[in-house]
Every structure is written in C-alpha cells, then in structure tokens.
Specification:
The protein is α/β, with parallel strands linked by helices and 238 residues long. 44% of the residues lie in helices and 16% in strands. A 7-stranded parallel beta sheet has the order 3-2-1-4-5-6-7, with helices on both faces. The chain is globular, with a radius of gyration of 17 Å.
C-alpha cells in the first residue's frame, strides 16, 4: 500500500533568510516544500525551481513545471521581495516601481496562477509576507511600505473572492528581524531599534516561520483576511 502524497507548499524566495526558515518549518510539518529562487543555488534537501516573480511568463512556466512534476501546490507563501531604500526626494520612479513590481505585483502574479489549481482542489492557503512598516510607515521606505500596505487590500480581496472555495488568504507582518542585513548595523543603531520594540529585541526568522506554519495548518482553517503581526508589539493598534 503506497503512502498518500504529501501536500505541496511553495515558498517564493525560499533559498535563504526568512524564506528558508519558513521552508524548513513547513518541511518539518510534513509538507513537500518547493522553493523558488531567481538566482543562486537551492539549499540541500529541497526541490527548487527558478522563478522570477516580476515576469508572468516565468511564474506560469514555474507552476506548469511544478504541477507536471509534483502536483498542485495548496499552500503558497509569497515571500520573494526586494528593497531600494532612500529618502523620498532622492527616490526615482524606477526605485519606486521596481519595489512595487517585485513585492506587490509579484505576489499577485504568484497568487493568481496558484488559484487555478486551488480552485480545482477546493482548498488552499495564500500566505503573504508583509511588514509592520505597511501599517506604521518608515522613513526612507516609501516604496517598500507602499508595497507591503498594498498586500493587505489584495489579500483581503482574495479572501472575499475565494473563501467559498475553501481558500484562505492572510498576511504575516513581521517587525525587525535578525537577518544578515540587520546584523551589519552599528551597535548603537541596533540598540535604538530594539529599544523601540516593547519586547526589547529583534524577531528571529524561526519565530516568523512558526506563525506561517500555524496559518498553513488545519488549526487555522477559519482564519482569513487577517493581518497577523509578528513584531514584538511595535505596530500595536495599527
């Protein structure tokens, strides 16, 4: 007797950082995790495909490959994104539009293509990686904050449109996270940031992954259209 196939989870931008932590958590939960990456190599122990979320053609080709080789993904974690931080007076149209295209429109391209299979399954989880700055804003991140704020309206619209088919749609909104980038900050700047967080510290990628794991599970089957903060209280009330 053959064992049933594992449910498939797709994590965009899953080859490093927060995306990789999420992939590892979902794998531990029993999912067959497939990662996408635009460049670099895939981590050991995972199936991975090349996908550029700024290209509808690349997204479609990626899903076609996954569906033919593995099956239909029923959990989508839209994690891929970029930053181009600068003060607004120096921010070019390209600085603004490229971040919107990767973070917001890219997530839309992935979710739109994913729903084709989910609608046939009559179940699914759309999980978008937002940010606390989508609610509270951040100097030097007008483009990034706009992209993450846009995810909220988009996710809630997906929730209303697809809920009757058993598909949920939610946003996970991290605060300041321990990453390679934040590790390079000067000690004073790190301390100032930590002091602004009620819990007094940065978040770990694993803590974000744990919340994604919950939202992907059956325990969260009645949660949709939500923004779930993982920010140590930084954005409370927003």
């Amino acid at each position: 007797m053959t064992s049933p196939a594992k449910p498939i989870a797709l994590v965009t931008g899953g080859n490093r950082g927060i995306g990789l932590a999420i992939a590892q958590e979902l794998k531990a939960d029993g999912f067959h995790v497939i990662l996408t990456h635009r460049s670099g190599s895939a981590p050991a122990g995972f199936d991975a495909i090349t996908m550029d979320v700024t290209s509808s053609e690349s997204v479609d080709q990626g899903f076609t490959q996954i569906e033919s080789q593995f099956g239909v993904p029923e959990v989508i974690v839209a994690n891929a994104g970029i930053t181009k931080d600068t003060l607004v007076m120096r921010m070019s149209d390209e600085d603004f539009m490229s971040v919107i295209d990767a973070n917001l429109t890219g997530a839309f391209r992935v979710a739109r293509r994913a729903t084709r299979g989910m609608l046939k399954l009559r179940r699914g989880r759309l999980i978008f990686l937002g940010s606390v700055v989508g609610s509270v804003g951040a100097a030097g991140q007008v483009n990034y904050a706009a992209s993450k704020s846009g995810l909220v309206g988009m996710a809630r619209s997906f929730a209303r449109e697809l809920g009757s088919r058993g598909i949920t749609s939610n946003v996970i909104a991290p605060g300041f996270v321990e990453t390679d980038m934040t590790a390079d900050l000067e000690a004073k700047r790190r301390n100032d940031i930590a002091a602004s967080v009620p819990l007094g510290r940065f978040c770990s990628a694993k803590e974000i992954a744990g919340v994604v794991s919950f939202i992907a599970s059956e325990k969260a089957s009645y949660i949709t259209g939500a923004v779930i903060p993982v920010d140590g209280g930084l954005g409370m009330g927003h």
